[in-house]
Every structure is written in structure tokens, then in C-alpha cells.
Amino acid sequence: MNYRLAVVSLWAEDVPAAVHFYRDVIGLPLLPHHGDRPHFDLGGSFLVILRGKPVPPQEPLAERFPVLAVSVPDLDAAAQALRTHQVELTWESDEHTGARWVIFTDPAGNLIELVQF
After folding, report:
1. Rg from Cα positions in the chain
2. Longest Cα separation, the chain
3. What is 7-52+61-116's CATH number, 3.40.50.1820, 3.10.180.10, 3.30.9.10, 3.40.50.720?
4. Structure pTM?
């Protein structure tokens, strides 16, 4: 079988703020036809924002393990866009791993990672 990720759902109490963040800060394309459950294109998969309270991580190391990681072609440009919008980067990669990443929280408190391989 050939499995492929279809949908990732994140919860946000302020859905318009989450839409602004993922569309205008991260740069994901917002799909026009999903009403109160905004859908973003993740390269053939979907990110869906649902109204509700995110569940905080329960483990002490959870601050380093995001609920969503998105591959970007230019991490430096993506990280600069985050900084321009005053998004605090809570964790940045070290160069010896072969991949580079930044980790931050979205407006709802979900831990998110942008990664460049």
C-alpha cells in the first residue's frame, strides 16, 4: 500500500487569528470553500483549523516535539518572516544534523516546526 498524509487538524480558540497566521505569516494557501473550518493546502494534504482549545503537551520534552512540521524550501526566509511578525523562535536547529529547523508556537499555542532538508 502507498500511504500518504491526508489531513492534519489543529485547534484554535481564535480561528481568524489562526487563519491570518497560517496564510499571512507562514504563507500557506488558504482554500476558498470550507466555511468555518478553514483548510490550507500542504502540498496535496490539508491543514484544517478547528474551533476549540488546543491540548497542551503533557511530557516535559514536548516543547521540542511539534504537533506539525512543515517542509519549506528556504528556512532562512521563513524564519525571517516569523521574526518580522514578532514570532518567538523557541528552538532552532544545530547544523550537524543534516536538517535545519525552527520551532515556535502558533497564536493558539500549538507547537509548530518549519524544516528544510
Report:
1. 14
2. 43
3. 3.10.180.10
4. 0.86
Nearest to 11 by CA among 109, 85, 88, 104: 109
Q: What is the pLDDT along the chain (117 residues), one digit of tens a residue?
A: 888 889 999 999 999 999 999 999 999 999 997 778 999 999 999 999 999 998 766 665 655 678 899 999 999 999 999 999 999 998 887 666 678 899 999 999 999 999 998
Domain ranges for the chain: 7-52+61-116
CB count in 10 Å sphere of residue 61:
7
Nine cell digits for residue 20: 491570518
